[in-house]
Specification:
Elements (H helix, E strand, L loop, with lengths): L2 E5 L12 H7 L4 E3 L8 H10 L3 E6 L19 H18 L3 E3 L11 H21 L3 E4 L15 H11 L4 E6 H7 L3 H8 L5 E6 L15 H15 L4 E4 L17 H6 L2
Parallel strand pairs: 1-2, 1-8, 2-3, 3-4, 4-5, 5-6, 6-7, 7-8
Length: 270
């Protein structure tokens, strides 16, 4: 089965953030991801990783003003200096945390904006970020996100993400393939895994049940089958990445709310 990483922004919310590392390790996770580390000192997070034998596999570059509704800066003309400063900060954290992947959120398309200008800004920012990350030995990831969860998000489709990666042609620029978002926008998830994983452009997977974004054994997707597809294709093409568990526990942030929903993980790793 794939290697599963606990998303500590969504899982274990019954604990303070820095205590979620121990909780994830106690439940058998060996990797973790989350949205943003910047509210905490990188050294403090690194200590929690070391104390619990965990690998940091992914986090996001700064997204702009998250609390004000911003969801990334990469496609926004006039915000290039802020984007570059934020990405430089992400690289500093990645160095301390020994994290190989940084997700760059595209951002929201402003109403009435020229999409061609947004596209040009997006691709220029990604090309710059990939160059900076390559010098540090890191990958840059982009993720198509469904417009129901984030209305107005600039990047929604797998084909468009792969076209961008191909156009920029930086070996360390890859796609973050979230099965949850893909099912909502496009469907045909298994065939898209078979189509895109062998290309070398998929850097990371994420999962959640559809439609409620709870545990992957709740909802319309057959995750055991999809895990078997990932395993089959990965074995054939040599892919050895991670699957991030980016879902909201159905029981919420109550004592053992995450742990009680991990029956799917036990079955997936026997």
């Amino acid at each position: 089965m794939p290697r599963f990483a606990a998303n500590l922004s969504m899982l274990y919310n019954e604990h303070a953030f820095l205590d979620r590392f121990a909780a994830a390790a106690a439940d058998g996770f060996t990797g973790v991801e989350y949205l943003f580390p910047y509210a905490f000192a990188a050294a403090d997070i690194a200590q929690r990783l070391a104390d619990n034998g965990l690998q940091q596999v992914l986090f996001n570059a700064p997204p702009g003003d998250w609390d004000a509704g911003e969801r990334g800066l990469a496609c926004l003309p006039g915000r290039e200096a802020e984007f570059r400063a934020g990405f430089a900060q992400a690289l500093e954290y990645a160095q301390v945390l020994n994290c190989p992947r940084i997700h760059v959120m595209a951002g929201l398309a402003p109403a009435g904006a020229d999409r061609a200008q947004l596209q040009a800004t997006y691709e220029a920012n990604l090309a710059w970020a990939a160059t900076q990350a390559a010098a540090a030995g890191r990958d840059v990831l982009i993720e198509p996100i469904n417009p129901r969860d984030i209305p107005g998000f600039f990047l929604n489709h797998q084909a468009e993400a792969h076209r961008i990666v191909q156009a920029i042609a930086a070996p360390n620029l890859k796609v973050q393939f979230d099965l949850y978002h893909c099912q909502i926008v496009e469907g045909d998830v298994a065939m898209k895994i078979r189509q895109y994983l062998p290309t070398g452009r998929v850097g990371h997977f994420q999962i959640a049940g559809v439609p409620m974004r709870h545990e992957p054994d709740l909802g319309e997707l057959n995750h055991p089958y999809l895990f078997s597809v990932i395993d089959e294709v990965a074995a054939a093409c040599g892919w050895s990445g991670w699957v991030g568990c980016e879902y909201r526990p159905a029981r919420g942030a109550v004592a053992n709310g995450t742990r009680d929903g991990l029956g799917w993980l036990k079955l997936a790793t026997v």
